[in-house]
Amino acid sequence: MAEICIFPIPGCVSFPGTVFPLHVFEPRYRDMIKHCLDTGTPVAICHTRKTLSPGKQSDSLEEALKSNQATYRPYDIFSAGRCELLETLADGRMLLNIHIEQRYRRTHELQLLPWQVYECEHFEDQPLGPNEAANCVLLRDKIIHRLQALTHAEPTARELICQMAESEEWQQKDHSAFSFALFSVIRFDPSLLQSLLEMDSAHDRLKYALELLNQV
User: Fold this and answer.
1) What's the CATH fold of domain 2-122?
2) What value does the mean pLDDT take over residues 158-181?
3) How do the domains of the chain map onto residue ranges?
4) What end-to-end distance do the CA atoms of the chain give, in Å?
């Protein structure tokens, strides 16, 4: 079990193995980040299921720096990792990188205010069978070729995909890591990304990603 602090962002789904840049200005979340930096508590960047209480409309940055915004209920499964403070601005705003390391499932509410804290369990992929593992190799190759076809008319994007296809770093990723890193390159609707995050099979994620790309 792990204690996780929640940073809810509507429409935002994060995946393990990625780095999420974060700009924090709300007073409660500045306090939360300070707590996480002091204690090493992971921060979850997660999509939201519903709004629990609407925030006060701020007409200026000065007002936003003094007031808390909306409170949201997160999805049950999200990704989290450690904070890296890059800079604290003169007005108190914080610029950070969140190094997303692991998926979690929330199990027990520890705190709702001033920020949300949950006791969580690791959410792992199921082991792949021999046939699934072999098929993942084919799926990865098909995804790369489909991305190259989709970016044929966009030289900059195509170059990025070609670099990804030839990169030793990408080639050495296991199937789970590859399937997660893929969504730092391509973006789908948040509801689809949440569905992909909640799958417990790298094979199923790669298969679904290819199906989605083939519909474009």
Assistant:
1) 2.30.130
2) 89
3) 2-122, 130-214
4) 40
